[in-house]
Amino acid sequence: MLAEIGLAALAIAFALAVYAVAASALGGHKQLERWQRSGRNAALLTFPAVLLATAMMVIALMTEQYQMSYVYSVTDPQTPALYRFTALWGSQRGSLLFWSLLMSLFAVSAIGLNWRGERRIMPFAIAFMMSTLAFFLGLSLFLENPFERWWLLPEEAREVSSALIPPGAVAPTDAALRAGAQGLNPLLRHFGMVIHPPMLYLGFVGFTIPFAFAMAALAAGELSSGWIKATRRWSLIAWIFLSMGLILGGRWAYDVLGWGGYWGWDPVENAAFLPWLMGTAFIHSVMIQEKRGMLKTWNMLLVIATFSAVMFGTFATRSGVIESVHSFARSEVGFPMLAFWAVITLIALGLLLWRWGRGELRDERQFANLLSRESLFVLNNVVFIALFIAIFWGSFGLPIISELVFDREVTIGAETFEFFVVPLFIAMYVLMGVAPLSAWSATSLTRLGAALWPPLLLTLLSILALALVGTGLLVAAAGYGVVLFAGYVALYEIYRGAKARRGALGESWPRALLALFRRNQRRYGGYIVHLGVTVIGIGIIGSTVFQTEVQHTLQRGGAIAVRDYSLRYDDFIRAQAVDGRMMNITAVTLFRDGDEIANLRPRIDDYEQMPMTIAGAHSTLENDFYVLLIGGNRERATFRIYINPLVNLVWWGGILLIIGTVVAVYPKLTPATHQRKREEALE
Amino acid sequence: MPIRTILPLPPAAPRHLYGVHPKHWRGGAQPGNLTDLPGLIAQFGIFVLVVFINLPVIVLAQEYGASDNEVIKVAERMYCPVCENIPLDECQTTACLEWKDEIGAQLAAGRTPQQVIDSFVARFGDHVVGLPQDPLIRTLTFILPVLATLLALAVGWHTFRRFGKAKQLSLEQGAAGADLSEDSYRQRLENDIRALR
Hints:
The complex is a heterodimer of chains A (about 675) and B (about 200). Among the domains of chain A are: about 1-145; about 445-545 and about 650-680, no CATH class; about 550-645. In chain A, about 65% of the residues lie in helices and about 15% in strands. Chain A is flat, with a radius of gyration of 28 Å. Chain A is α+β, with helices and mostly antiparallel strands and about 675 residues long. In chain A, the strands form three sheets. In chain A, strands 4, 5, 6, 7, 8 and 9 form a six-stranded antiparallel sheet that branches. Chain A has 21 helices and twelve strands. Chain B contains six helices and one strand; from the N terminus they run E-H-H-H-H-H-H. In chain B, helix 2 (about 55-65) crosses helix 4 and helix 3 crosses helix 4 (about 95-110). Chain B starts with a strand and ends with a helix. Chains A and B meet through helix 14, helix 15, strand 3, strand 5 and strand 11 of A and strand 1, helix 3 and helix 6 of B.
């Protein structure tokens, strides 16, 4: 019954989404109020329908309905309850259903919040949102149906998976299904994977909203900055989820993939990073349109590129076009996704060209000089675009062209990516430092220089201090300097703002800081984000430039010294976990300067011939002592040891970045009128 | 981590022994099983042949040896030839472990890291290294991102210059427009005063 209800709900949601596209487009184009409302209501109803379908799937997963082939493929009787729930996004069919749920949730929220305020463009926005939803629901319904069940065809002596009952088919016995159930992909049995996919999906789906509003503005001819004001929070919300998804993905890789790092420039990692780059360029660039009425065409292009990158990334990871550890989900959806991506991108570009050709996207102001803040933001956009092109080319462009044209498979490795991205990231940090100190419209070199010298002085002192404490590598010290410069500027800006309030209003430091953030959440939230990116940068430099890597075989009782640590191999045990995997566990003791500081258990988990290397790690803010078991037995074992300095700053920086974005996106707390007037007078 | 049993089980077999996990040994010649004597003789024959062919490498390996760290330094520049996009030094499959053993043997035989890598590229293709070896594809790898960045900068620079010119033009037009409107305003004022008289 669960499968029948789920299938019916899915079909109803698909029909509603298709109807909403048609009714909203017609109502918007012909200005027919009834059709507009009808389209809106159909769009609102998609959410309960998809929710019902998803609820049926979750119940089926939790109650072990193995007749449903999706439940059979991602769980087994040993699967713990938490992973039984997260198996919803553990494979292609479930994750497509989950994607549709999130898409309908975002669409319903956007309609609820913007229907009145953006009345003129909403029918078109609904049409674009619902067309994306209808596409994903269609994939679920016709190609990757999560409600298919196993059936036995006695006459043909074979079993089939089908959503509808084939003629003459009988259901297999529950016992046989339970015995054969496959369980969740071992790589996904990690807490990071519980949260990482929903965060990424929320980020991906979230960027559909600004895209839909932008397209609606083009379709309706409402080309003021209204659509940007209506969607700036949606853009930031999508960006925060995508950032969280990337950070959690890095943490998962660090914990589970067992290679001592967190970012390998794998094509699937890059597929999620590309929309982030475009989205970051967009959320900076829209500020210029809001403040100065400039870059209207460019912002449209950026929002199209962001959505296009989302769709391309989804296509690349789900179609198996580029194989990698993440591409667990090969299926028939490749071509439809490619077609949808191409069609929606062409429609968007066509609309943009049409309005641009009519001269409706002219900027209200022009650039004053090269040092103005808007000019520096444009340079920032150039850096993000260059990063996007380099990473896209290395991950997808070159491998695909090489295979198609030269019939040669190629792999672009981390060192090749680093050749391109390191200089661009340096440029990004420099701009992150200079741009906030530059004024809108025009800034003279003298004025910019006067604002720059305190953070520059701090930066130089920091480089000197690093050189004195023996950082060693000049390049690394310079790298720290560039990254710290961006952070010092953010701190200096916060300090200057709070100091001005103290001087004018006599507020205490905490009160001045609180008022400062409350007065301009977006700006000062942005500075916290910049601080987060600074902390991440320090962590990345420390953990890559100064990483120590050693592999050594130890006899039981033997020890190896690595820098000021030593590791002793104590014991080896084999054990079996409740989910059936065999574990080869080593017990090792870690010493620092002769003192015992930790007992670690690096191990290899064996899931039916699929080995997973689970690190033992001793973490401090200073570094991670990260040890992997490579192989061995009771008498001797081989370990690979990494010392990753400052690696934990990558995660702490990520948390800071998220806090900053939450501050920026949090609904404004309006102060009392007199207070506001006083502050306005102050400004 | 829930654990059902912790047993002092016998030590695990080396992961690459016989190529498969011991639990998958079925029938045929297993260690200690003498029922398939011809099979064992054949395996011994193959072993002797492999040892004979690799004797120079083995002798040199014993003489010079190649440390795990030297092997890692080479393996981290390569990718698993069969499981795409996984660096060889991280890959733990049986095939990868054997390839790493082979890297060690080649290094011990006196080959340079680049020669070892070249031998793998010759056998498996460009995708075992992180940078294409074919000169044309290698050039393409580097040239497009650099050209795209330069193009983006050129477009940006052109845009600034165009805006600069447009601004100058609009200022001149603006100034002219101000004069005209002022004249018209003055004219209207004079007309009004004349009417009042």
